Structure to design on (181 residues):
């Protein structure tokens, strides 16, 4: 008989999409997000059978990707969780452009001027951090500055608050170009 240990976990549902699981640290359960994402994707694919691929991509970005990216900049996700989100979005690109599972979609994304999930998260963080850094709300500004001081080395995108936003956005796109090779 296997050794079974029981851990009491408290869960809190926020807007019925994100579930925060608390033990000693905050962890985010992405399963409800992924379910909502796939549901949205399937609905769009069902109603756009004979539509141009770029039109369907635009719909997927507008509706499905927004479900996947909801509140991402405010979360601290592990590399594994970011890979899971990347798998979700890559599956949409593969289905849309008839790629197999073993084929990389980064060239397609680069050719279309789009970013993969990890770089989209970077872009969202750049914009989110810049917004907090320039916030007129003193409480938000102070909390952000406290977090920035204590996490400056842990998040590369925090450094972008000191540069103009167009340069920070350009940096993310250059990082993606380097990633694609």
């Amino acid at each position: 008989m296997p050794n079974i240990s029981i851990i009491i976990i408290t869960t809190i549902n926020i807007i019925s999409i994100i579930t925060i699981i608390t033990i000693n640290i905050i962890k985010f359960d992405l399963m409800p997000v992924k379910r909502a994402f796939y549901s949205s994707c399937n609905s769009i694919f069902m109603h756009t059978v004979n539509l141009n691929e770029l039109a369907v991509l635009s719909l997927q970005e507008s509706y499905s990707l927004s479900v996947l990216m909801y509140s991402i900049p405010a979360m601290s996700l592990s590399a594994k969780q970011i890979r899971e989100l990347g798998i979700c979005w890559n599956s949409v690109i593969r289905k849309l452009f008839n790629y197999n599972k073993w084929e990389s979609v980064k060239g397609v994304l680069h050719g279309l001027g789009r970013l993969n999930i990890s770089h989209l998260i970077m872009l969202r963080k750049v914009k989110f951090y810049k917004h907090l850094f320039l916030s007129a709300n003193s409480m938000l500004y102070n909390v952000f500055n406290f977090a920035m001081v204590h996490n400056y080395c842990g998040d590369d995108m925090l450094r972008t608050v000191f540069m103009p936003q167009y340069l920070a956005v350009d940096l993310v796109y250059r990082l993606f170009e380097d990633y694609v090779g």
Notes: Residues 115-181 form one domain. The first helix runs from residue 31 to 47. The chain has two domains: 30-112, 115-181. Strands lie at 10-14, 18-22, 26-29.
